[in-house]
Prior knowledge:
Strand order of the largest sheet: 4-3-5-2-1-6
Structural class: alpha/beta
Shape: globular
Low-confidence stretches: 1-6, 19-35
Helix content: 40-55%
Strand content: 5-15%
Number of strands: 6
Distance between the termini: 33 Å
Number of helices: 14
Amino acid sequence: MIKIIRKIGFFLLICFVLAISCSPATETDTQTKSFTKSFLWEVSSDVNTIYILGSVHVAEANIYPLNDVIEDAYDQSAIIVAEIDITNISEEELGMLLMEKGMYPAGESLETHISSELYSRVSERILELDPTGFLLSYANVFEPWVVAVTITDFDYMQLGYDAEYGIDLYFLEKANTDGKQVLEFESAEFQLGLFDSLSDEIQIMMLEDAIDNPVTKAEMEDLFTAWNTGDASTMELLVFEGIEEHPEYQRLYNKIIDDRNFLMVEKIETYLQGNVIHFVVVGAGHLVGDNGIINLLDEKGYDTLQL
């Protein structure tokens, strides 16, 4: 059975710009399916049409060029909408927010907040990544979720996946070059605050998972097979399968998925009532499932078409 905490990590990869981990492959064989669609939807009201693209926040360079239908939808749009505009926040500002949301107060540390056995395993894993010990001293002042993010980011980079090639960043930079207006649903402070609001138990489980289950190339390939082929069914399985069996995680999903989807749909409806075409780029996990953005818009009577 897939570890449920891995599925939380997977969701964060495809639904938060500040992401952490990836779920193991399901038994679904995405390689044997034949899909001709992209992870892009055209959504129409009586007066306007917009486009909604599911993003993955880290990728390999060879993901580009993207499907022509995606680029054409971008070209037709006057305004780009992302979860957060990560091109509009400096590294210094992000660093200050990270210290505010993820750093322990003076006199406290990761070592004093987790078991000695877990800290020993964390230290061993981090020293594998950085034998100088600098990274370990840095990590020790941060909460478990920050350390989990750091470890998994190294996993991504070692496999050749980087936020530099993330789909959201690609379109934000493109919009800046083309002089298109950029809007954001959330802020970096809001997203970091969601991580920080996770219980100690969930944060520690995320940290254990980052140590015990390093991201693999096969996992990432399965994810991108689903994305490249527009396989929304497999993406939904990767995000949601088995969650209903664990009420504690269902509550967490309600907070980090459903509540955010409802707020995004409210804003999307305002775009659909206007006369300007918007190109919305959000994590692919936001688009699938009963409370996914696409299904919510469909239930409200808007026409949704996967391209």
